Amino acid sequence: MPARVTRQSEPQVAPQGWKGIPAQKLLKRCELCEWRCGVDRTAGQRGPCGLGIETRILRQYVSVTEELEVIPALRVYLGGCNFRCRFCDTAPDCLEPDRGDLPDPGTYAHELAGAVGRGVQSISVLGGEPTLHAHTLLEWAAAAPTPLPLVVNTNLYMTGEVLEVLEGVVTRYLADLKFGNDACAQRLAGVPHYSDVVRRNLTWIAGRTPLIVRHLLMPGHLECCLRPVAEWLAANLPGTRFQLYAGFVPCWQAGTVGLGRLNSREEVRAALDLLDTLDLNWRAGGNDKA
Ligand code: SF4
Description:
The protein has 290 residues and is α/β, with parallel strands linked by helices. Helices cover 29% and strands 16% of the residues. The protein is built from eight helices and eight strands. An eight-stranded mixed β-sheet has the order 1-2-3-4-5-6-7-8. The longest helix has 15 residues, at 222-236. Residues 1-20 have low confidence and may be disordered. Iron/sulfur cluster is lined by residues 30-33, 35-37, 39, 41, 47-49, 51, 82, 132.
């Protein structure tokens, strides 16, 4: 798919009454992500993400800690993930897809629309990996009585088919560009072919949907991860809105992969100095836990 890179426009709300495509078709031979494991999720088969057809809500709350473009945001956590990031701050909950509440999609879509009516600027869906629930996002968009400003936090490992079916439904992507090379992706998250997939998807998204690219600075990973991430973005998608999260907190199994500490002041300073040299629309922030 050729890349079309244009200036980002203001977010549009998802089209009202959008019917989407049937969940059965998306999930019958699942290729929602680049594992492309092909299981029949409608028949109870489970792939690496462990998900069937259900979408469970792990938790939700209104947040003002994200980027200015999206706050106040109703953050909605969905279970199930296709990555195994050893430093994940929602593991192990997000890795157990049978946890959480199971609302009726139509009823829940009305609840989300109600939250928008009460003043939240975005419905910020995260996980886990929310694009593994593309069928549910389509259902919510179709069932909502008013357009939903759906913001999707993603690890960018979806297939091109998923990007296509979500076009016009997702109003903004908050895209985690986590690793600068395939070796770190494999070692820290257990994911193959990382760079090709996420760079392809970013290029596709950038021409079509408002986008903020995030990077969590990991201790000791400035040269192998932040530098190639930032330099690739500046060279291929110049002017991209980029958010550096420097407040790394060692969570879950971070200590088993050499990430059992905070970033030092020197590492953070070096990261900011690097970004200053590049053609990126960048800002820096912490994160919820920091
Ligand atoms: S979303 Fe889950 S079931 Fe579908 S291809 Fe990816 S890992 Fe397999």
